[in-house]
Amino acid sequence: MTTTLITGANKGLGKETARRLIAMGHTVYLGSRDEQRGREAADELGARFVQLDVTDDASVAAAIATIESEGGLDVLVNNAGIAKRTADGRGEALDGPSALEVYDTNAVGVIRVTEAALPLLRRSHNPVVVNVSSALGSFWATHEPSRPASHYPAIVYGSSKAAVSMLTVQYSKAVPEVKFNAVEPGITATELGGGDPGSHPGRPAAESAEVVAAWANIGVDGPTGTFQEDAGVLGW
Hints:
Elements: E1 3-6, H1 12-23, E2 27-32, H2 35-45, E3 48-51, H3 57-69, E4 75-78, H4 96-121, E5 128-132, H5 155-174, E6 179-183, H6 205-216, E7 226-229, E8 232-233
Parallel strand pairs: 1-2, 1-4, 2-3, 4-5, 5-6, 6-7
Antiparallel strand pairs: 7-8
Helix pairs in contact: 1-6, 3-4, 4-5
């Protein structure tokens, strides 16, 4: 049995990834900052709930301790991510506190959870980390006119996801016994940026979850240090 932790999983892409992995036979810990919403989502899916705020060291440590006490961990999906909008909702918030909040969640959060989880992952026969990144963090995609990312300015969010991609590369080099891959899930209808459900345009979260789940389910001979999307490798 493969045991998987997904951060930011009480809704949207994280929740649908949990649903998909449970169908594949994984035991899934649904990590959520909000306890009520997290428990409701876990009960709905047949997952195990763990309270987890990726910006809080104590919360992360407690979540990993719970998972360790219940058997261990094979797969980590670093899914939690935010974007910040201006008060009028018309653009990206570019003030210092907003930028720090985005980076703390999207990039530093990956480090917090990964570092806490590594001792458990190293005990697995097939340890895997999937970092949910974005084409908005791809230097190639943001310079390629045929890609939507080249036409959508995302100063803070995009650069935070570029950091996620580089974290993936560097962790794959520093921890070769664990497979680290970044995934672009596609433009997905979510609440990213604090809007109403489905306010972010794109395809259903259940469809985007397929590529995330596929990379969480790779075998012992799977690659590491790659950036993937539906069609295959995405340029960095």
